[in-house]
Every structure is written in C-alpha cells, then in structure tokens.
Amino acid sequence: MSAPTYPSIAIVDIPGKGKGVVAREPIRRGTRIIAEEPRIRVPHYQDRRQALDLKSLSDADLKFFLTFPCEDGMDPVRGRLRHLIPCVGAPDEASALFETVCRMNHTCYSPLGRPNALYTWVEERKEENIAENEEITVGYIQAKTHVMDPFTLLRQQWGFDCRCAGCQRPLAERLESVERVQAFNVHTREVPDRMERNSGYWPLDILDDIERNLLAICAEGYVWEISGCAHDAFQLCAFYGDGASAARWEVLAREVHRVIHGVDHEFEKSAKLVARPTGFRQWKALVLGKAQKLRGPSQKVLSCFKQAVMTSNPIKCSNHECSKTEEGSVKFRRCKSCLDTLGLDVYYCSGECQIADWKSGHKSICGKAVKV
Ligand SMILES: [Zn+2]
Ligand SMILES: [Zn+2]
Ligand SMILES: [Zn+2]
C-alpha cells in the first residue's frame, strides 16, 4: 500500500483567535486531514496537577511551548497545557502538544452550526466539505461533556470567548440546548436497562424513544451520534429476531463509521451485522416463542441521516477508483438493492463502475446480501 497522502493545510494567524489552521485546497467530506506525531509528550494526563518540567525541554521545544497562548494571571505552564490532546493508545496515558492539530480552533456543536472536522484519535477527519482558505475547526466539547453552557465552559477551561453562531444565542437558549443534550445522555445510558425483558418497556416504544433522541441530538448538531443510536436500535431488533429491521438500523451505524473512519476493522464488523444480523451474539435473546416484528428507521430518521452523513456536494461515484462527480443534468444511477432494502443511496457514474465496486467489495455489503 502506498503511504497516505493528506491535503494541503497551513497554520496561519486568525484575527481575534491567535493561530489557526486553514485549508490550502478544497477538501472533500470524509478525507483524512492530518496524522501527526506528538511534539511534547506529558505522561499521565489524567493527573492534571502534574506539570511539565520545562527544564527537560530542548530550546526548540521550549520555544514551541511558549507559542501557545496563556492568559495573564494563569500559571504559565498549566495555562498552556490546556491545549494538550490525548495520545492514541499511549500506555502511560500521555497527552501531548502537537504542532498542527493543537492549533485547530474550536466551533461548538449547536442548532446553528458545527465544526467542519473531527478528531478520530490519530487523524483529523473532515466532517463537511471545506473550501480553499476556509478555517478548519474541531469541537473541544462533545455531547458527553456538554454538561453546561459551552461559552462558560470554554472560557473556564480554554480561556477564550467563543464567537460561534451557537454561542451568540441568548443564554436561556443555550441552556435549553444543554438540557436537551443532557436528556440525550441520560437516555443513552438507560437504553440497555430498558431493553431488559422485565423492564416494563415495550420494544416499539423503546424504538420510538431512540428515534426521538436521535433526531433531538442531531438537531443540536451532534450528527455522529446517529451511529450509537442506530446500533442500539439494531440490538433491540436483533434481540427480538427481526433481522430485516435490524439490518436497516445497522446500516446507518455502518455508514457513519465509514464516513468518519473509513473501511477498517470496525466497519467490517458492522458490515457483517448488516449482511447477517443472526450472527449477532444475542440474536433472539428476548424472544419468548415467536419472533417479533419491530421496524426499521422512519423516513424522518432516514432523511436526517442522509442530510447529515450521506450528502456530499456534488454527489460522488461510489467506486473508490473513480473520482467522477454528478454534474449538470446527467444523473448518477443508484444501487437498487441498497435503496430498496436499506433505504441507502449508493451512487455510480456508470455500469462499469458499479460492476468494479461490486467486485471490490460492495457484493458483501449490498442490501441484497441481507440474510435473516
Ligand atoms: Zn461556541
Ligand atoms: Zn465512476
Ligand atoms: Zn448495493
């Protein structure tokens, strides 16, 4: 395999924000932006009191360290260590200052907007299409940590005033968002208990709740949470032996994973569940006697999913070897089985590309392959 190539980006001065990172070419959704080695490692990040020994740094690293902003009155080391990011798989739970990734500024997830990129541990990945010279931003706050007004939290933890569209709303509205995100977090934690046989909840009611939560969290900008919600719904359908509905849910989880992380081990696992829901470890775990028919995602959820995850502007051919996009009046064909069975749009510029993609793997994940 050839070494991965990454799009051209640059660290520049951003008025009012200090440094920031911008794209030097248009970047398409789903592209890996960067993977980089840590520059200054700090072990045992969890213990925030442990400060960095500046004397241990080389002159160049010390200079680099001091380029990070620190407010007046703050401890000059700890103030700068607020920019640390966890290192992937570090046995000493190290965090680090990275040369480029730590320069990416923040945008809040909110009903009015969201960041255009996302940390996926090793790499930054594009969430939206990014135009040339557009600033690349990530979210320092995720649904799980969205437990108070982001504007206040950002000022406390990172020492800046967020000027994103979400933070310009009146405080009361921002607090309503906090409540909705919290309600989502609580629901997500409770779902496994609700699925227990003697919980007193009907499976169709649980599905309704999952859907309501999925739509609510997407409305708050956290569209990637679709994945977890959809997998919960998959499990529920699998517990009751409804493979067709289970597959339709899992395909949402699978596609979210593909857009964020690409085709990796986790994607393969998810694709296997789509193709053969009966392979799920606890298949039919809750069935007494006859399996129960539940349901797949509603039209509302599907259109939310398509809008959040599948739209790429313009539409691209699904054959990875092909870079054609739908332009003008020529409409791309769609895979019929994927559309009919899973409600999923899979586009091809031509029959040749559809055949090539089929041979190179679509065969195993195509809607037609669902076996229940
Ligand atoms: Zn904000
Ligand atoms: Zn093509
Ligand atoms: Zn297909």
UniProtKB/TrEMBL annotation:
It holds the Pfam family zf-MYND. Residues 319-366 form the MYND-type domain. It comes from the Eukaryota. InterPro entries: SET_dom, SET_dom_sf, SET_domain_protein, Znf_MYND. Coiled coil: none annotated. Residues 7-141 form the SET domain. The keyword Zinc-finger applies. One of its GO terms (molecular function) is zinc ion binding. The keyword Zinc-finger applies. Keywords: Metal-binding, Zinc, Zinc-finger. PANTHER family: SET DOMAIN-CONTAINING PROTEIN 5 (PTHR47332:SF4). This is MYND-type domain-containing protein. It comes from Mycena pura.
